[in-house]
Amino acid sequence: MPPNATAGGQSITDSLISSAAAAAAESEQNPTKLQQDSTGVLFEYDAETIDGGLVKDIVSMKKADRRKLKLVWRNIILFGYLHLAAVYGAWLMLTSAKWQTGVLAFALYVVSGLGITAGAHRLWAHRSYKAKWPLRVLLVMFNTVAFQDAAYHWARDHRVHHKYSETDADP
What integer best gives the mean pLDDT of the chain? Predict the structure, then answer.
């Protein structure tokens, strides 16, 4: 028997649609039956809609005009300059800087990474843990060292990014 067929010759989708329609008709006739049968668990077959909407191939339905990309020259020049300055800084670090400067640069790298990951991202954007006042102050100072905008704005933009991910509205 094919994997998508039932014993009666119906496909699983057809049987799901017919059982959902029967359940809807029964719940209209006897509304307390629905409340009695409710377990609070959402099974896969419970999520299927009456019209079979979850098994539709939506890739073929998604059509959008190609978006014309706009070059932001200010950002292109700024990023180009920053990368050239980083190469020059690495050259100076290897040829003429003291070892203490390298240690300080590495410490600031770690501190700024903590400010973004533990502070702006995990604490304020996702609220994945609670922190007391001294740690929040320390993380906001570390976030400032990273120079990636204020922690409040970083968290706001990151939440918008998650909301509109994979769309043109993604910042």
Answer: 78
* pLDDT given for residue 67 in this prediction: 74
Count of other CB atoms within 10 angstroms of residue 108: 13
Give the residue from 13, 43, 63 where a domain finishes.
Answer: 63
Q: Report, as an integer, the average pLDDT of 131-146.
A: 95
Residue 8: band (very low, low, confident or very high) from pLDDT cuts 50, 70, 90: low
Cβ neighbours of residue 168 closer than 8 Å, sequence gap 6 or more = 67
Residue type at 113 in one-letter notation: G
Task: Quote the CA–CA distance of 170 and 162 in Å, as a whole number.
Answer: 8
**Distance in Å from the first CA to the final CA of the chain:** 49
Question: What is the DSSP code string of 144-170?
Answer: HHHTSS-HHHHHHHHHHHHHTTTSTT-
**In this structure, are residues 108 and 145 in contact, taking their beta carbons and an 8 Å threshold?**
yes
The residue type found at 118 is: A
Predicted local distance difference test score (pLDDT) of residue 1: 47
What is the residue type of 37? D
Q: How far is residue 58 from each of residues 49, 53, 55, 165, measured CA to CA in Å?
A: 15, 9, 9, 18
Average pLDDT, integer, range 72-92: 96
Residues 47 and 121 in one domain: no
